[in-house]
UniProtKB/TrEMBL annotation:
Keyword Ubl conjugation on entry: no
One example GO MF annotation: oxidoreductase activity
Gene3D superfamilies documented for this protein: NAD(P)-binding Rossmann-like Domain (3.40.50.720)
Keywords assigned by UniProt, alphabetized: Oxidoreductase
Top EC class for this record: oxidoreductase
EC number(s) per entry: 1.-.-.-
Annotated protein name in UniProt: Short chain dehydrogenase
UniProt superkingdom: Archaea
Family, as annotated: Belongs to the short-chain dehydrogenases/reductases (SDR) family.
UniProt keyword Secreted, yes or no: no
């Protein structure tokens, strides 16, 4: 029960990673508050998770939207930001720049700003970057990769700024998250080391550990979680 007494806001909950983080956090004794814009999805996820889970519907992509969701979430001890969105573009047609900077830089910063008055010494903030931001420079991922790179730097900057409050800021950089989370299955059978993709469970377990006190000395870094797939890309 590594997260007993914790209440984690998971902003931008999908049926994949966000759902899996919620499941493993509850298994470790936490309560979770899930956020997304689609209420139907959240109702179904919360129903499957039981009474340790609740939800707040809302768009967190503006300062007011983030403040509103954090306020309605009640007391929280930790924040996990899994807000997503992916598109491909190039410098010849950088059509995704505004959306990617909004989703992967502005939105996480609005959420951290809105949460600061609730977080305290011992709290953890977890961001989700991407191996695309760290290791590869594909010609069709201009806005996505640049935005995720900015988020990776934000982890360091925020961790530095929040040192004196005793709040850790950490991140993971997944490779490819395959499909939806399914509680209770043997997901390890679904991948082998070196595969580019893995089920949400593999990434969610690392996030859950990062929230725990076992990871207290990990701060201001983004950990690649890719089963070593990046070693095949260079
Ligand atoms: N999938 C991958 O292979 C992969 C690889 C590397 C990194 N990542 C990163 O890992 C994280 C989770 O990935 P994922 O595939 O689970 O993400 P996702 O489905 O693309 O996004 C997560 C959820 O964020 C919610 N969301 C988006 N904008 C929002 C907003 N303004 N306010 C509130 N909720 C919002 C969406 O739900 P609603 O539409 O209901 O709001 C969505 O289901 C993301 O940060 C993603 O960029 C993913």
């Amino acid at each position: 029960m590594r997260l007993k007494g914790r209440r984690v806001l998971i902003a931008g909950t999908s049926t994949g990673l966000g759902y899996a983080v919620a499941y493993f956090s509850i298994n470790e004794g936490a309560e979770v508050v899930l956020n997304a814009r689609s209420e139907k999805k959240l109702v179904e996820i919360v129903k499957s998770l039981g009474d340790k889970a609740s939800y707040v519907v809302g768009d967190v992509s503006t300062p007011q939207g983030a403040r509103d969701v954090v306020s309605r979430a009640g007391n929280i001890t930790d924040l996990v930001i899994t807000v997503g969105g992916y598109l491909e573009d190039t410098v010849e047609s950088p059509s995704g720049l505004d959306e990617m900077l909004k989703n992967h830089i502005k939105t996480p910063l609005y959420l951290v700003n809105a949460s600061l008055e609730k977080l305290h010494e011992g709290s953890t903030i977890v961001m989700v970057s991407s191996t695309r931001a760290l290791y590869t420079a594909l010609p069709n991922q201009l806005s996505y990769a640049i935005a995720k790179s900015g988020l990776t730097k934000a982890v360091e900057i925020l961790a530095s700024e929040l040192l004196n409050k005793g709040i850790r800021v950490v991140g993971v950089a997944p490779s490819f998250i395959m499909g939806d989370f399914v509680p209770g299955r043997d997901w390890r059978k679904m991948r082998k080391l070196g595969d580019a993709g893995a089920p949400p469970e593999d990434f969610a377990q690392v996030i859950t550990w990062l929230l725990s006190n076992e990871a207290q000395w990990v701060n201001g870094v983004v950990i690649p979680v890719d089963g070593g797939a990046r070693l095949k890309w260079v």
